[in-house]
Write a structure and sequence with these properties.
Layout lengths: L4 H50 L15
Length: 69
């Protein structure tokens, strides 16, 4: 039975699938790391934006829109 070519073919396919599965797992792991970093960065930016929005602004006459006639 060990000399059966079908057995050898199945072993090769299994080895290929195990390798492909590991490669996909590695890709997913790296993508999750990137997602986690981006989420943390987005949260920091959102906090900064919220802090800027809550800070009172000084009145600047140059920023006022001129009246339209």
């Amino acid at each position: 039975m060990a000399d059966d070519p079908r057995f050898d073919e199945l072993e090769l396919k299994l080895a290929y699938l195990e390798r492909a599965n590991q490669e996909l797992s590695d890709v997913i792991y790296r993508q999750q790391q990137s997602i986690d970093q981006l989420e943390a960065r987005l949260a920091r930016l959102a906090d900064r934006l919220q802090a800027l929005e809550q800070r009172p602004r000084d009145y600047v006459a140059e920023e006022e829109a001129p009246p339209h006639y």
